[in-house]
């Protein structure tokens, strides 16, 4: 909560934490609601603009607290209305936030970490390695920045952001406390008032944390499945070696049934040409998901340089979708949005200062493959 300035950053405090903060400085708890509304409903980060707070309290707050969102490095708007912000976090790395308008819906895709340690083979964030967890203020700060940029304050009246998905950079369950705090603020009426069904956490499958999540919050859950068997999933999503499919699906079922109402798991499946897009994969998936209340979202692979993967043809995508559909599943294919501003899933490339040195290895592999290609084309010419 406390960052370089030594002041407490009120942006990332949940209602309970804000009340504790006011207690700790000898002020009444109801101040928590007043200040949260200024911050989240009105997008205010200057205590002097808080007209229902006395001058004495404002001066006191200035000495021990601040409201500090991450720095916006750039904002791009795509021809299809998608927006992308690059923001710099305290570690010095940059992460991305993407807004996708769709009819009356507006979905904000939020990052949870700078880089990612999990190294899924088809994900450009994974290729950058890991740098840092985002603080709660840096996670909710992305919502604050986006909301403010629409001028749609108070947030609850003219709502541009109707849904939030934790599907930006990073594995949200590996930054558990900060992500949970930020999601509480998203759902709080004093925050952004978004319903629990419309806040979705996406995970590649950190099993113990799925159970822990169920103990503290009731947001929607999305599972990045990507393969219908352990052998293939071990290659694509390496954390599967630690938490294999049987264990993972059991944890997801526990989470969904713990919500105690008619809610379903979202299954995300990135389609990779000739890797996981064949009819036999669809058949295996149907068997695997037989007992899992879910809807399926197919994501055609979004290419990035030297990934080694390709997007399947439209025919292959349709064939895969049809097979699942015929088995009774609700299946959507995610359309790629914001391609002209590199805002599509898996294309988010911040400027991460890699602590895992994975990006160095990746660059070395890229250089080798470039050299091999150059050699090959030279050979072809001779
Ligand atoms: N770490 C979390 C959330 C972020 S990734 C997770 O893995 O679930 C959001 C989604 O985009 C995941 O399903 C991820 O597997 C998918 N994705 C990653 N790279 C992709 C790419 N190049 N093309 C399409 N989808 C990709
Ligand atoms: Fe990390 Fe998710 Fe990318 Fe895997 S897909 S490397 S878990 S961000």
From TrEMBL:
Cleavable signal peptide: none
Catalysed reactions, semicolon-separated: adenosine(2503) in 23S rRNA + 2 reduced [2Fe-2S]-[ferredoxin] + 2 S-adenosyl-L-methionine = 2-methyladenosine(2503) in 23S rRNA + 5'-deoxyadenosine + L-methionine + 2 oxidized [2Fe-2S]-[ferredoxin] + S-adenosyl-L-homocysteine; adenosine(37) in tRNA + 2 reduced [2Fe-2S]-[ferredoxin] + 2 S-adenosyl-L-methionine = 2-methyladenosine(37) in tRNA + 5'-deoxyadenosine + L-methionine + 2 oxidized [2Fe-2S]-[ferredoxin] + S-adenosyl-L-homocysteine
Positions of [4Fe-4S] cluster binding: 116, 120, 123
Active site: residue positions: 96 (proton acceptor), 345 (s-methylcysteine intermediate)
Classification via CDD domains: Radical_SAM
Annotated cofactor note: Binds 1 [4Fe-4S] cluster. The cluster is coordinated with 3 cysteines and an exchangeable S-adenosyl-L-methionine.
Entry GO CC: cytoplasm
Xref: InterPro entries: Aldolase_TIM, Methyltransferase_A, RlmN_N, RNA_MTrfase_RlmN, rRNA_lsu_MTrfase_RlmN/Cfr, rSAM, rSAM_sf
A Gene Ontology biological process term: tRNA methylation
EC category: transferase
Necessary cofactors: [4Fe-4S] cluster
Xref: Pfam families: Radical_SAM (PF04055), RlmN_N (PF21016)
Protein keywords: 4Fe-4S, Cytoplasm, Disulfide bond, Iron, Iron-sulfur, Metal-binding, Methyltransferase, rRNA processing, S-adenosyl-L-methionine, Transferase, tRNA processing
Radical SAM core domain boundaries: 102-340
Subcellular location(s) per record: Cytoplasm
Primary localisation category: cytoplasm
Binding residues for S-adenosyl-L-methionine: 170-171, 202, 224-226, 302
Family: Belongs to the radical SAM superfamily. RlmN family.
Function: Specifically methylates position 2 of adenine 2503 in 23S rRNA and position 2 of adenine 37 in tRNAs. m2A2503 modification seems to play a crucial role in the proofreading step occurring at the peptidyl transferase center and thus would serve to optimize ribosomal fidelity.
Protein name: Dual-specificity RNA methyltransferase RlmN
Provenance organism: Pseudomonas taeanensis MS-3
